[in-house]
């Protein structure tokens, strides 16, 4: 099917990034949020990011042209004629199910529904609608405008043509799609999460300090960020939530949260976004490693 109009649910870090790359790719994009203030915050991030690309000369059109294709709304009716809906709201299965079952009655029957969830079962959310065959996962990576990968997730109910349309859509966004199925963590988090949890365990066992473990993996393996910098970047609350879903499914220690991760989350230290995690970001340009 031909995708022309894109609807994005949520204008947080991921939703605004997805909206941005969709508009840059030439789609008309409508972003739904609960309140105008969330739209304002998300669009401010888009403006900043687009300005960076324009400065580097990597934007094919003037910023205003791209911006003109982006619209923010607070009522779901405004999404009725979208061809694809990409959801990037809170990682809570009940909230996602409620949202999709409501939209199911409002949005045209042929539209594809997609979730950007990193860990919630796409099958379970899809089953809350009358179109589980038109439901996929489209898992983007943070920061969306820079990260090339999209995991395109098929459930046992996804129709072949819907899956191929979603795959082609990810390509049109300038991303590199990979094919995967609806198992917790898909490909990336299935491998990345146990690695990050092992880094925490290594720290707990005194193998090295936080900056030494980070530098070891950065300089020894050529990773762009060490595991603790990445954990703080992804968000410790998000990572902790993913571990719970993965452990629940697989019951294997490698997916279980180490005690320190849980305690940092209980303390409200979620990483960069809360100003403190494995590092303290009082001065964001000079993070100070914690001693736990
Ligand atoms: N828009 C436009 N430009 C941006 C930008 C954005 N949102 N963010 C950063 N940039 C620009 C910077 O301004 C900078 O430009 P410059 O070279 O002109 O100064 C350039 O990109 C590079 O940025 P930085 O200098 O700040 O830092 P890095 O060179 O380290 O690159 C990075 C940043 C691309 C984030 C890199 O560190 C990286 O790849 N890190 C790993 C990220 C990662 O692994 N993400 C996946 C997390 S897992 C996930 O998302 C899944 C979820 O389910 C948990």
Mind explaining what this structure looks like?
With 292 residues, the chain is an alpha/beta fold. It has two domains: 177 residues, 3-Layer(aba) Sandwich (Rossmann fold), CATH 3.40.50; 100 residues, Orthogonal Bundle (N-(1-d-carboxylethyl)-l-norvaline Dehydrogenase, domain 2). Helices cover 45% and strands 15% of the residues. The chain is built from eleven helices and ten strands. An eight-stranded mixed β-sheet has the order 3-2-1-4-5-6-7-8. Strands 9-10 form a two-stranded antiparallel ribbon. Helix 1 crosses helix 2 and helix 7 crosses helix 9. The model has no long low-confidence stretch (mean pLDDT 97). The site of 3-hydroxybutanoyl-coenzyme A has 16 residues, from helix 2 and helix 9.
Short description:
The protein is α/β, with parallel strands linked by helices. It has helices at 13-24, 36-56, 63-68, 93-106, 122-126, 160-172, 188-204, 210-221, 227-234, 236-250, 259-266, and strands at 5-9, 28-32, 70-73, 84-87, 112-115, 135-140, 149-154, 176-181, 279-280, 288-289.
